[in-house]
Amino acid sequence: MAQADPAQDYATSCAECHGSDRLGGIGPALIPETLSRMRGPNLENVIAVGRPSTQMPAFEDELEVAAIAALADYLKTPLETEPEWTPEQIAATREMDADYVPADAPVFDADPLNITLVVETGDHHVSVLDGDTFEVLDRFETPFAVHGGPKFTPDGRFVFIMSRDGYVQKYDIWSLQQVGRVRAGLNSRNIAISPDGKHLAVANYLPMTLTLLSTDDLSVEKVMPVISKTGVHSRVSAVYQAPQRDSFILALKDAPEIWEVATDPDAPPVYEGFIHSQEKGMIEAIPSSEGLFARRRIEIAEPLDDFFFTDDYRHLIGASRDGARGVVVNLNVGREIAELPLPGMPHLGSGISWDLDGRRVMATPHLKEGKLSIIDTADWSVLKTIDTEGPGFFLRSHENSPYIWADVFFGPNKDVMHIIDQNTLEIVKTMRPEPGATVAHVEFTRDGSHALVSVWEDDGAVIIYDAKTLQELRRLPMRKPSGKYNVFNKITFSEGTSH
Ligand code: DHE
């Protein structure tokens, strides 16, 4: 039997759609950074039988089983050198839709602030739902494999959506039309919008950069290489908007630093570096350039990611590398101030906060253990640990709801949704709306009267619940719906949602 030659097979069968450099073309990038995240059918199976309802054909008639296995292994090998993705290359991918016409007013009767977007990962679309009638006003195609929350302009009119291959799509909710697209990175994590809605930051793994785009026309404003003070190049795990600070906060995957990037053109000097003086809390700072996109480094003991921020954005909790601790950083003084035990890999980015007996508390699920931790943000103690039927991924609540909705995402009970009373911290109901299916991620309508839950399967659905009685009202069929995002809850930074 002939020896398999995966590089040749790639060039013959894959390169035309996925790029000769494996960085994507009309098909997605085929690199380990993307493929290790691939869930569902495995890679060999996709090569053999293709992907239904996409342009990915089946290769089982052309390639032998051993050749398919060798090709799958080849795709999982890292690229030999880190590819460049310069501002010029980014700019060359920018496509603004010629037939886009900005509407003077919403082209529908629904409340534009009660629109909810549903990301349907089954066939890479977003459904635009009227949050009152649950009618689908539009269903548009997204780039392949959207990840993280779409980000809305402060007036709620435009939304930006990012794919793991680094594409950013701009969509006009009033006109129900795509405005344009650009590829801001080659493998990206998430996006954040500046408080004034003018700048969009894209956190990249490949290359190790932060791309800053103008939200107006998706043009490149700046590409910041991410290099630590000691010269370590780092991937950016995530970027977050810090509204009160008028900045972006960056989690660095490979370097013991947190970066703060100013989004206010009139920002006072932010600081290039810090020298800790002996006196507690005092810092000597070395000023860097002033204003827009000036960068400040906060040095920490080890890389942290998956941030939860307090409401005033003075503090963040990040997850430690060993997945056993939460580390609290005071962003004002720029140093770690506390640690708390959170074994089982806390998923702090899904954290939500509320008032409990006069205390400001937050809750976080854990990705490796079936429990939720409730934390007092005044003294950073763990108030309570709630046992659930398995590890969860997302939490949601709303100012007008007394309940926390907590999914179980992994394991045999992935069809479970727990309802927890915010005051007693007890599970008051455990639902199994679609036995055997993954049931996850909740979003509320603007007024908190309804909760929307995803049946995260290819022939899935969004289930609409009465958020008070917890009764199911309707099911909207959807293709593997994942996250759902209500415009009002997002632009007002509702305490019951992650940001
Ligand atoms: Fe996510 C948000 C990181 C795997 C679906 N995810 C986020 C955010 C981060 C993050 C930093 C916040 C960004 C934002 O919204 O701006 N996610 C990670 C990981 O590190 C992790 C564990 C591994 C990885 O593959 O990168 C991971 N995430 C997943 C999935 O496997 C999920 C379930 C399916 C998928 O789409 O890949 C998934 N992540 C989501 C969703 C959000 C998200 C739906 C937005 C939640 C929201 O309500 O805002």
Strand order of the largest sheet: 1-8-7-6-5
Rounded to an integer, what's the Rg over CA atoms?
23 Å
| Integer average pLDDT | 92
The coarse silhouette is globular
State the assembly state of the protein chains.
single chain
CATH topology of the largest domain, what is it called? Methanol Dehydrogenase, Chain A
The DSSP helix count reads 6
GO molecular function, one term: electron transfer activity
Keywords: Heme, Iron, Metal-binding
Pfam family, one: Cytochrom_D1
Domain Cytochrome c: 1-79
Task: Give a verbal description of the structure.
The chain is mainly beta. It has three domains: 69 residues, Cytochrome c-like domain (Cytochrome Bc1 Complex, Chain D, domain 2), CATH 1.10.760; 239 residues, C-terminal (heme d1) domain of cytochrome cd1-nitrite reductase (Methanol Dehydrogenase, Chain A), CATH 2.140.10; 152 residues, Methylamine Dehydrogenase, Chain H, CATH 2.130.10.10. The strands form nine sheets. The protein has a five-stranded antiparallel beta sheet with strand order 1-8-7-6-5. Strands 4-3-2-35 form a four-stranded antiparallel beta sheet. Strand 7 and strand 8 form a beta hairpin. Helix 1 packs across helix 4 and helix 3 packs across helix 4. The protein is globular. The termini are far apart. The structure holds heme D. Heme D binds next to strand 9 and strand 35. The site of heme D has 14 residues, from strand 9 and strand 35.
SSE topology sketch:
Layout: H1 6-18, H2 32-35, H3 43-49, H4 65-76, H5 87-92, E1 95-96, E2 115-120, E3 125-130, E4 136-141, E5 151-152, E6 158-162, E7 167-172, E8 177-183, E9 187-193, E10 199-206, E11 209-214, E12 220-225, E13 236-242, E14 247-252, E15 257-262, E16 271-276, E17 283-287, E18 295-299, E19 305-309, E20 315-319, E21 325-330, E22 335-341, E23 352-356, E24 359-365, E25 371-376, E26 381-387, E27 395-396, E28 403-407, E29 417-421, E30 427-431, E31 439-444, E32 450-455, E33 460-466, E34 472-478, E35 481-486, H6 487-491
Antiparallel strand pairs: 1-8, 2-3, 2-35, 3-4, 5-6, 6-7, 7-8, 9-10, 10-11, 11-12, 13-14, 14-15, 15-18, 16-17, 19-20, 20-21, 21-22, 23-24, 24-25, 25-26, 27-28, 28-29, 29-30, 31-32, 32-33, 33-34
Helix pairs in contact: 1-4, 3-4
